[in-house]
Amino acid sequence: MARSEVSNSVETRVIDWPAASRLAEAAATEAGRLGVRVNVAVADAAGFLAAFIRMPGAPLHSIEIAIDKAYTAASFGLPTARWHDALASHAEAARQGIVLRPRFVAFGGGLPVVERGHVIGAIGVSGGSEAQDEVCVRWPRRSRPCRSATGPFATLRCLLHFRITRTSLERSCTIPNRSPRQAVNPARNRVCG
Predict the structure, then answer these.
(1) φ, ψ (nearest 5 deg) of residue 85
(2) What is residue 1's predicted lDDT score, i.e. its pLDDT?
(3) pTM for this structure?
(4) Which regions in the chain score pLDDT beneath 50?
(5) What is the dihedral of CA 80, 99, 126, 75, to 10 degrees?
(6) DSSP labels for 122-175?
(7) Where are the alpha helices (DSSP H) in the chain?
(8) What is the C-alpha separation between 31 and 25, in angstroms, rounded?
């Protein structure tokens, strides 16, 4: 009689370190283009830090805020900027209680990283205004496909796929003296070959 094995585990996909590093670098590059100093954190699917960049001169308190934005986005698979709307239909106790949780961030600058429908990590940016953090955190998605990428992420767009529409991206780009289209023009900055 054949013995059947019962599995007591599930497979989890996580962002690998080269992709996490490229993602953090792309966000920091965009911050430099905008003239702001930020901290960029990339977390894996479990919320553990996978990559981090602190630009010289970035606010020190923003280090933990960037990490917590990535943690929050990875934990729930929801951009941190969408929490206000997401909680609107819940009871007052839920709205007040969740924002008091340690490491929970309910303002812009954190996005989940999604591959083939699975959250594999998240990115958090902090140091600029909320709008500037949003531009930086969203910039890597606007990049062209990597032709030089290898390994399990070779089929991804350069620094991963996201499900954000151009309209919502343009609404979040309110940098003074710069139109939304200028702030997110992918032709101006290619992250990968």
Answers:
(1) -70, -40
(2) 57
(3) 0.71
(4) 143-193
(5) -50
(6) EEEEESS-HHHHHHHHHGGGGSPPPSS--GGGTTS-TT-B----HHHHHHH---
(7) 17-34, 61-76, 83-87, 92-99, 130-138, 166-172, 180-183
(8) 10
